[in-house]
Amino acid sequence: MTQEKTTGGSEKSKKPKLEDIASPKGMRDILDKEYYEYQGFFEKASEIAIYYGFRPIETPILEREAVFTSSLGIGTDIRDKEMYSLKTKGGDHLVMRPEGTAAIMRAYIENGMQALPQPVSLYYHGPFFRHENPQRGRLRELRQFGAEILGTTKSIADALVIKTLTLILEEAGFKNLSVEINSIGDKECRGTYIRELTSYYKKHIAEICPNCKERLKTNPLRLLDCKDSRCQDIKINAPAPISSLCADCRAHFKEVIEYLDAMKVPYRINNNLVRGLDYYTRTVFEIFDLGDESTPGLSPLALASGGRFDYLARALGSKKDVPGVGGGIGVDRVIQSPSHKPLDPRIIKKPKVYFIQLGFEAKLKSVAIIEVLRKARVPIAQSLSKDGLGQQLAIAERSGAPYTIIFGQKEALDETVIVRNMETRSQETVKIADLPEFVKHLKEGLR
Predict the structure, then answer these.
(1) CA angle, corner 49, sides to 150 and 36, nearest 5?
(2) Least crowded by CB within 10 Å, which of 3, 41, 70, 260?
(3) How confident is the prediction for the chain on average, in pLDDT?
(4) 286 φ/ψ angles, rounded to the nearest 5 degrees
(5) pLDDT digit string (tens) for 214-251?
(6) Omega into 119 within 30° of 0, i.e. cis?
């Protein structure tokens, strides 16, 4: 009679059901081909960012809660509804990062980057977490690529971020992109606009959705971000932020537009574009995939977004403003889009050789053969767990590798291998000591 293990000496442990250990809602495993598509995209995006003067940075997945509660603003969905938060045993309040910009500014301040030559241009990529309803292109664990320029108010930085993100998307296969852009002003002129917007919406208080009634009290700018059908006609006739810009903001926005024209970046001014986070000032933008004739019926999908955040540093406790601008690409949306052209990562090489081993003695020495091939930069495929020659040859045929190396008991004793041409079926025996030189010539024939 067997005795079940107990927990805490009293309760019987229960074996979990499969549904009890399934990946959490909105989070998933990324395997094989799709994994390499993500890796290929991140490699290409990083390469382009480096050429445009950005340097890599990686911030922790867990940040102190105040990094985001102090910067995102009351009334924003990310802050109020979507953050994954926890309290540690030591009493720290942490969150799984919901976005990248506030964390990048925290790192800039904490690591003394103010002392570096300005501006500081940084790029990053990785997972972010938001507790929202999963839907098309929107997951609870999402992957982003971001680019930020900190330490300059110059309008060319705004255009450079937009150009960099647009170029990355073009390299990933998107041929019909459009940048939607707007200016929401700064502390000199935004107050006037907020008063105008609030006054306008109060006249329509009975017609707007419940969420907008709350936004009217807590975060009026987000009224323009509402997607509820009840608010669309009202939003269309709302005063536009651009009409209230001060002279400096107007000049800044005009320069950004001129730079985009010079860079041949297609754009459209969207008077209702505000973005959902409090730290944005002046320029805000979204980059849309408009699709093509082969994808009828799909609405334009926002692949990237961002803007300027000149007051974010003070929200994080800095005594001085650190002007900045940046944006991020939603990589899950990119990978899942029919417009996406997969980019092979550099690590992936089509196998040129299939390595077959037969018997225990051959298995013992197999890794040494694989290492010879690795040092010669010849990518291989293998199945060391298999034993039969016929089975392994069949796998080799399916792999498409032009050559097969056969290493059996006899070859292990003789310190040789058999190299077979899979097309002509010719083969020759090569001493293991001579294999590096042989492989060198073999590589030349495989180009």
Answers:
(1) 130
(2) 3
(3) 87
(4) -135, 145
(5) 888 888 888 887 888 888 888 888 888 888 899 999 99
(6) yes
Looking up tokens 């917007």 gives 197
Q: Are 263 and 297 in contact (CB under 8 A)?
A: no
d(CA 157, CA 300): 26
Identify the CA nearest to 303 among candidates 286, 284, 285: 286
pLDDT at 6: 44
CA gap 216, 109 in Å, rounded: 33
Q: Which of 389, 395, 423 is nearest to 407 (CA)?
A: 389
Question: Is the CA virtual torsion 369, 370, 371, 377 positive or negative?
Answer: positive
CA distances from 338 to 135, 164, 288, 293 (A): 16, 22, 14, 11
Token pair belonging to 258: 């001129």
Q: Is the pLDDT of residue 206 over 90?
A: no
Question: How long a stretch of residues is the chain?
Answer: 447
Q: Are 139 and 59 in contact (CB under 8 A)?
A: no
Which of 404, 356, 421 shows the shortest CA–CA distance to 382?
Answer: 356
What DSSP letter does each residue of 404-431 carry, written as one string? EEEE-HHHHHHTEEEEEETTT--EEEEE
Prediction pTM value? 0.84
Contact present, 142 and 302 (Cβ < 8 Å): no
pLDDT tens-digit profile of 144-168? 999 999 999 999 999 999 999 999 9
Decide if 415 contacts 409 (C-beta within 8 A).
no
Which two tokens mark 262?
């010079």
